[in-house]
Amino acid sequence: MEPNRSRSRSAAGLALLLGAGGVLHFAIPKAYDRVIPRALPGRPRAWTYASGLAELGCAAAIAVPRTRRLGGLLAAWLFAAIFPANVKMALDSRNKPLKHRLITYGRLPLQWPLITWALRVRKTA
What we know:
Layout: H1 3-27, H2 29-33, H3 44-63, H4 68-81, H5 83-92, H6 98-107, H7 111-124
Helix pairs in contact: 1-3, 1-7, 3-4, 4-7, 5-6
Protein name: DoxX-like family protein
Transmembrane segments: 12-32, 70-91
Keywords: Membrane, Transmembrane, Transmembrane helix
């Protein structure tokens, strides 16, 4: 596969992942409300919608070649920013069934590859 096509597919995949995640924030907000850290000011639903909009914005920026470089950087920042919510979700799952705990704890190390992917999309834009 030629390098330009590979880079475009990588960017499209990241945009699709972010876009789907953003849509889910609006389709099933209660699931996201539960993982908003209590230390954040305001209502969890506002943070759910704001983070959904952020994901959709990053997806749109990555999807457009002209803004892909900025979109990759913003997506990397977003993946780092949502890490505390993933930690909270993992901690909250301590008394849940093993399968649920494995899923929530398994998400934690995925943040680094997502950040790396976003930065790679930025670099190759």
